[in-house]
Amino acid sequence: MSMAGNLRKVGNLRKVGGLRRVARVAQFVRKHSRVDLSHPARSPLGSAVVKCVTYRGGVRQEDGRDLVEEVERVRKSGDGFVWLGLHEPTEQEFAGIADLFDLHPLAVEDAVHAHQRPKVERYDETLFAVFKTVCYVEHAELTATSEVVDTGEIMVFVGKEFVITVRHGRHGSLGPLREELESAPEQLAKGPAAVLHALADHVVDDYLVVTDAVQADIDQVEMDVFSKDGERADPGRIYQLKRELLELKRAVVPLGRPLQILATQPMQAVAPEIQAYFRDVDDHLKRVTEQVASFDELLNSILQAHLAQVTVAQNEDMRKITAWAAVIAVPTMICGLYGMNFDYMPELRWKYGYGLVIGVIATICFSLYRGFRRNGWL
């Protein structure tokens, strides 16, 4: 589409009521640019627009224009780009923005409804990427119902003169990332692809933080299982860790292919010099993937060890019960023998018969006890 066609389209879209509301909200947010808009990341006006900033030469512009005017100005000059940040927009809130930036309907649907796998898709000159964000949930003590990993999503639209980030979830605020990029204007001057790389790097760095925290939980469970009373450890904690690890795995593993695409396949939205940075992010992701796989194997081993400990403890109990049953069987047998109602039995009329029987019972029981004790059964 020609530049003149873009400008005519922008002029027509300014007449749309929904787009005007988006523009007014974006202008309000720019005037309050230092406000912390982390979750619930809605602007004071209740809109999904969290931040709208224009960058030229890697430098943030503070000129107070609304969204449509900023886009028009960037398209006219061919310099800089607009970074629009949203949090959980509705279809109505996103409709005007989709028209303004000519976003593909399928990508718009994914961005609004979320619950997508990590992926990268190309729609003409626009790149659409989905990242799963993760956050470690702090807990005083790990239980069978503890939440360990919380996940969210970040969708990114990257075009020639814009970046649109759509965030879903209770965490993953991009305010600190934006400030970090603004402190490095030489990187931000490389365009929207630099923002996409920074987002991917930010997400993968969070993966590393979460895996380190999960490692501490696994170490604690492992210590409890192999402690003196390890057979009494709650196996529900191990199963809970495996469930939470599965949620982390669903966020980490599918991102491998999209990062490889960004790092190797040529595309208009990503310059070759930026692709080298994506290769570094891919290396970090492979490290996380290997850690998650090793955690899964380690938890399986811990669970098997715990089940083996329980079996050994049960066998110990059964041996003790069996040994005492053998000891008790001796007096039961002898007393049962002399309890029979026969008129003629040995020692029935003998003066020392009672003492002799008691002595025999005590001797046999003591011998059995000593033998079981020596063999470790008691």
TrEMBL record:
<feature type="transmembrane region" description="Helical">
    <location>
        <begin position="321"/>
        <end position="340"/>
    </location>
</feature>
<keyword id="KW-0472">Membrane</keyword>
<dbReference type="Pfam" id="PF01544">
    <property type="entry name" value="CorA"/>
</dbReference>
<keyword id="KW-1133">Transmembrane helix</keyword>
<protein>
    <recommendedName>
        <fullName>Magnesium transport protein CorA</fullName>
    </recommendedName>
</protein>
<comment type="similarity">
    <text>Belongs to the CorA metal ion transporter (MIT) (TC 1.A.35) family.</text>
</comment>
<keyword id="KW-0406">Ion transport</keyword>
<keyword id="KW-0460">Magnesium</keyword>
<comment type="function">
    <text>Mediates influx of magnesium ions.</text>
</comment>
<dbReference type="InterPro" id="IPR004488">
    <property type="entry name" value="Mg/Co-transport_prot_CorA"/>
</dbReference>
<feature type="transmembrane region" description="Helical">
    <location>
        <begin position="352"/>
        <end position="372"/>
    </location>
</feature>
<keyword id="KW-1003">Cell membrane</keyword>
<dbReference type="InterPro" id="IPR045861">
    <property type="entry name" value="CorA_cytoplasmic_dom"/>
</dbReference>
<dbReference type="InterPro" id="IPR002523">
    <property type="entry name" value="MgTranspt_CorA/ZnTranspt_ZntB"/>
</dbReference>
<keyword id="KW-0812">Transmembrane</keyword>
<keyword id="KW-0813">Transport</keyword>
<dbReference type="InterPro" id="IPR045863">
    <property type="entry name" value="CorA_TM1_TM2"/>
</dbReference>
